[in-house]
Request: fold
Amino acid sequence: MRNSKGQFMKGYIQPAAKLIENGQKLALGYKWTEEQKKKNLNLFEEGYTPWNKGNKVSDKQKDKLRKAWILRKTKGLGIPWNKGKKRPEMSGEKHFAWKGGKYDRDRKIDMGRAKYRKWRKAVLERDGNVCVLCGSDIDLNVDHIRPYANYPKLRYNLNNGRVLCVVCHKLTGTYGKKEAKWQGA
Reply:
């Protein structure tokens, strides 16, 4: 839309319906006819060159660009302030997910092994595929009574396993991140 002086008004977007009424087509997904290509755009003509092709950058402009690049590299401009910086207030024992220096990767690998699957299946069969606390048979987990991370010798011991539903499992002292702090009897 134009104002009284014939200038385009800032922020006004012409609706698609008006464009079509005026005989103009929307550019998105529209195929140009040869007539329109010749009439409206010289972009499609063979030998068309962009406005800035062949323009030389002056020595003064090259110096400005070079200085800006050197500043960026030497002063660290453009590099995040915290790149490579340690955060001692959030590392090691102070981190919320600290598990006493133990890493879960071994557990995830073990859960895919035949020995773990065999142990899990044996515990499920022994407890009759029901939660030992509430008797539910929905959303069952096989829980280590003594934590997996703290007692590596008891990991595959049948007496260290029990079947719990998800609700009962979350109420135990060994569920999730609580396991590293669990003292046990």
Observations:
- The helical segments are 16-21, 34-40, 59-74, 105-110, 114-126, 166-171.
- The mean pLDDT is 77.
